[in-house]
Write a structure and sequence with these properties.
Blueprint (H helix, E strand, L loop, with lengths): L2 H4 E6 L7 E6 L5 E2 L7 H15 L5 H20 L2 E9 L7 E14 L6 H9 L8 E7 L4 E7 L2 E2 L5 E2 L17 E2 L1 E8 L3 E11 L5 H14 L1 E4 H9 L1
Antiparallel strand pairs: 1-2, 2-13, 3-4, 4-5, 5-12, 6-7, 7-11, 8-9, 8-10, 11-12
Helix pairs in contact: 2-3
Length: 239
């Protein structure tokens, strides 16, 4: 895949006066459910075709319900300001079926202290205490500035709660409900010097055993994407 095929120019925000653009380093041949954000008719037709191809043995009512569910997710993500949400689905691989979701968006971190650890920035943003759980955090350089990545295996519980970084071991004596399922989660945050508009990339996989491979893709996207704020561009031109 060429460099041009991996880069997407996305203006932000998607509605209202633009304040900048993101040069997103991501595949162009995957299914991005946020593609053509202003063309709902084209998206609906695309999702209906996807449902027919993915679930050929199901009734049209079921296929329509699947398409409607994806369409509703698209509307929610666009309303939240998300820029991209790519799906990777491979029914057969050496490691079993692959189903990954990789979403990207711009977040405002505000002004950050120069000596603030990037891992602390990520924990603050997620609103979680990550040190007591089974989560791997690593800093890495990005084209935007500092970068930090997170790998964990979140657990979902019957009451709807989520443990983002659960303990690695659990015994029957620990009490509490057993998790309904365990997922793989990989997060990449690219931060410009001093903070401000940063790029957040989040990936989830149904098989937690695939999370390390997923994290490699997350780091690639976060590490090579850039954000250009128009006000900063004008300031450079005028000086």
């Amino acid at each position: 895949m060429t460099e041009d095929e991996l880069k997407h120019r996305v203006t932000v925000p998607l509605s209202g006066p633009p304040i900048g653009e993101v040069h997103l380093y991501a595949p162009s041949d995957w299914l991005d459910i946020l593609e053509d954000p202003k063309d709902e008719e084209a998206a609906q037709a695309r999702f209906e075709e996807l449902a027919r191809l993915t679930f050929p043995g199901h009734t049209p009512d079921v296929q329509q319900a699947v398409a409607a569910g994806v369409m509703n997710t698209r509307r929610i993500f666009l309303a939240d300001g998300m820029l991209s949400c790519g799906l990777v689905a491979l029914p057969r691989t050496e490691d079993g079926p692959v189903l990954w979701e990789i979403c990207s968006g711009v977040v405002e971190l505000g002004t950050l202290e120069a000596n603030l650890d990037s891992g602390t920035v990520l924990a603050r943003f997620l609103g979680e205490e990550l040190t007591d759980g089974d989560a791997y955090i690593e800093s890495f350089p990005t084209k935007l500035g500092a970068g930090v990545g997170l790998i964990s295996k979140p657990q979902l519980f019957p009451d709807g709660s989520v443990a983002l970084a659960p303990a690695s071991t659990r015994t029957d004596d620990d009490g509490g409900a057993a998790p309904v399922t365990t997922l793989g989660l990989a997060v990449g945050l690219a931060i410009p010097p001093g903070g401000g508009h940063s790029l957040l990339v989040i990936g989830q996989c149904l098989d937690p055993g695939q999370v390390n491979e997923l994290a490699g893709i997350i780091a690639l996207i976060a590490g090579n994407s850039t954000i250009e704020v128009y006000a900063q561009q004008e300031a450079r031109i005028n000086t």
